[in-house]
């Protein structure tokens, strides 16, 4: 029996995801186990983006828990915002939130998004995400691991 036979015999092999974490916030109305997420970089160093990419990649596979990245805020149930909010991104962030249909969630990802991180008093910084728009879910870390990102998304989808 060759490698094809072994694949047919074993099937898909993946890590056990474990129990779903305790919900930090309920899903928006209309979200039934599925969450369409739009990512917004408000002024980050791209560390969080690398980890979000890893969370949606083949190893952590956030889509198996019902979370999916979308290209337009008009198709999104939630925004995941990374980085401090810079002067040039404050209004585009508000516009993106306004373009996202209600009810919606805002997920602040990373220490910079939560408390300005290392960019604390930089001249081009307006503030943390919560100082510009209301935040529903927080993911701490610099940068947060893909496990933390997936866990936060699972707390919303309850899967």
TrEMBL record:
<comment type="similarity">
    <text>Belongs to the complex I 20 kDa subunit family.</text>
</comment>
<keyword id="KW-0479">Metal-binding</keyword>
<keyword id="KW-0456">Lyase</keyword>
<keyword id="KW-0408">Iron</keyword>
<keyword id="KW-0411">Iron-sulfur</keyword>
<dbReference type="InterPro" id="IPR052375">
    <property type="entry name" value="Complex_I_20kDa-like"/>
</dbReference>
<dbReference type="InterPro" id="IPR006137">
    <property type="entry name" value="NADH_UbQ_OxRdtase-like_20kDa"/>
</dbReference>
<keyword id="KW-0004">4Fe-4S</keyword>
<dbReference type="GO" id="GO:0016829">
    <property type="term" value="F:lyase activity"/>
</dbReference>
<dbReference type="Pfam" id="PF01058">
    <property type="entry name" value="Oxidored_q6"/>
</dbReference>
<protein>
    <submittedName>
        <fullName>Formate hydrogenlyase subunit 7</fullName>
    </submittedName>
</protein>
<dbReference type="GO" id="GO:0051539">
    <property type="term" value="F:4 iron, 4 sulfur cluster binding"/>
</dbReference>
<feature type="domain" description="NADH:ubiquinone oxidoreductase-like 20kDa subunit">
    <location>
        <begin position="45"/>
        <end position="155"/>
    </location>
</feature>
<dbReference type="GO" id="GO:0046872">
    <property type="term" value="F:metal ion binding"/>
</dbReference>
């Amino acid at each position: 029996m060759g490698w094809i036979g072994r694949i047919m015999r074993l099937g898909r092999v993946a890590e056990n995801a474990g129990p779903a974490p305790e919900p930090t916030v309920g899903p928006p109305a209309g979200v039934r186990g599925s969450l369409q997420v739009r990512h917004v970089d408000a002024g980050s160093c791209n560390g969080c983006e690398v980890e979000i990419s890893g969370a949606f990649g083949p190893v952590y596979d956030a889509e198996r828990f019902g979370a999916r990245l979308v290209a337009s805020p008009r198709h999104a149930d939630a925004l995941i915002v990374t980085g401090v909010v810079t002067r040039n991104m404050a209004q585009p962030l508000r516009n993106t939130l306004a373009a996202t249909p209600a009810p919606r969630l805002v997920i602040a990802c990373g220490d910079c998004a939560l408390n300005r991180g290392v960019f604390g008093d930089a001249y081009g910084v307006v503030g943390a995400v919560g100082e510009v728009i209301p935040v529903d879910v927080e993911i701490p870390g610099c940068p947060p691991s893909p496990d933390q990102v997936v866990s936060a998304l699972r707390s919303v989808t309850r899967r």
